[in-house]
Amino acid sequence: MDWEARLQEYLAPRHAQVNAALERYLSESPPRPRVLPDAMRYAALAPGKRLRPILCIATAEALGGAAEQVMPTACALELIHAFSLVHDDLPAMDNDHLRRGLPTVWVQYGEAMAILAGDALFARAFELLAEQARLSPPERVVQVIDLIATASGVHGMCGGQVEDILCEGQAVSADDLRFIHAHKTGALIRASVLSGALLMGADTPTRDALDAYSRALGLAFQIADDILDDTAPTEQMGKPAGSDRARKKATYPALFGIEQARAYAQQAMEDAITALQPFDNRADPLRWLAIFAVERGR
Amino acid sequence: MDWEARLQEYLAPRHAQVNAALERYLSESPPRPRVLPDAMRYAALAPGKRLRPILCIATAEALGGAAEQVMPTACALELIHAFSLVHDDLPAMDNDHLRRGLPTVWVQYGEAMAILAGDALFARAFELLAEQARLSPPERVVQVIDLIATASGVHGMCGGQVEDILCEGQAVSADDLRFIHAHKTGALIRASVLSGALLMGADTPTRDALDAYSRALGLAFQIADDILDDTAPTEQMGKPAGSDRARKKATYPALFGIEQARAYAQQAMEDAITALQPFDNRADPLRWLAIFAVERGR
Question: Which of A168, B128, B228, B269 lies at a 20 to 30 A Cα distance from B143?
């Protein structure tokens, strides 16, 4: 079997586990408030790769753990990702109407409800992170909360989105582009891997290797996303093709050309796999995910 | 000295301590991202009562603690309050232009930056809550994070704001009004008191008494706010007087008339003070705050 078949075999049961857990974590619905719980479910349960939960789980498994041991944290990462998409899509931000092939939350529920659904998903994520303390020592849980909060905020995701907006339509340097990618998407991918490591009590050299892996992986995914946006047809993307270019967003193909962008993605994939050298074959899913990140973009 | 002079004497140094800590917690500013750290400071450092941090501190002190022992949590509560104001003021929500006598964050920095400043303040709050683990046992910190995340989300502040929006311009029942107040503002006031109690390791009867106090206090503050909005001139409010009425918001004076609203506020104050009967004079600031909540509204 090639890496792709083995990855799919690895992903299928975990994807189902994560979806079932997300469904469970978002199921409680007293009569009030109205609408908001539906908007939260609409945002978080839409079909998706569940990349961040899978990374947290695959890292825990690479270190001898099991998916169920880190599930609250894995799902919290997905809720934070969903929250960021809901807010990014708003008219005042990227003004996107389609996401994963469906109307965005603000189109479906209105702007006020979309802002509050994002906020409430973010809050729910921290409830789940606290719930992780039923499964893990509280001092590790507190470290994970610090890691994920930092990755989400001014020096992580929010900061990256701000620079992305400020750079729109501007002449963008390679430094700008690296900052945007490392923060807007890279920070939470890194936190997904490292939270799995922290919960398993990984030592510093192990965490450092996974840190290097996660940075290279985040870069590989982002460059491949940039290439996909530039080259794939709309039906494959679930959003209008070429929308980044139309909006003059900072992207790797725009700055370096498509061939050089592909070379950078390939290099990032190799860096990610090199970083995993100290690990045994339980880390294979992390390796396949690095290949998948880049092959998708071809 | 009467209660008012003693309360002012109590508040002045703690108010200064909280402001200094907020300043410190929001001071770090690498070159990027641009603008966002300023927008966060603008939102969180604007003059204000700092009611939520003071409640956390006063509760800790009533149980033998000191302000510095709970400062990260106290400031996290203020950041969450600031985040909620920034988002509530947005054009898609309450469309407010003035807050505490100054242009609201979206007027000053634009809508996209206001959404992200709110998000980043919320994230920073959870970083501070994690930082509390340097001062308190991590299992207590995790309980506080669960409490505060729940109070902020779909079954707390966000849920209350949703019902407030859905009820605007509608015929509102006493049940609707109670739900809105208990969630939109009550939940975080309750969490402010209970987080101080949890960090001090309070036992269940103590926490139950403080729970009753905080619910009654939140109600007293909210009814008095409703009355103030209805009766005080603009310069005293820092926002246009009668704006709730103009917008047909659900309020106590609108539903019950001003006299009955005053009677309910008085009753809530008495309930708050009664709940503190088991406590000695270290709980006096909590008692004065209950009186202050209502006297302000006269």
Answer: B269
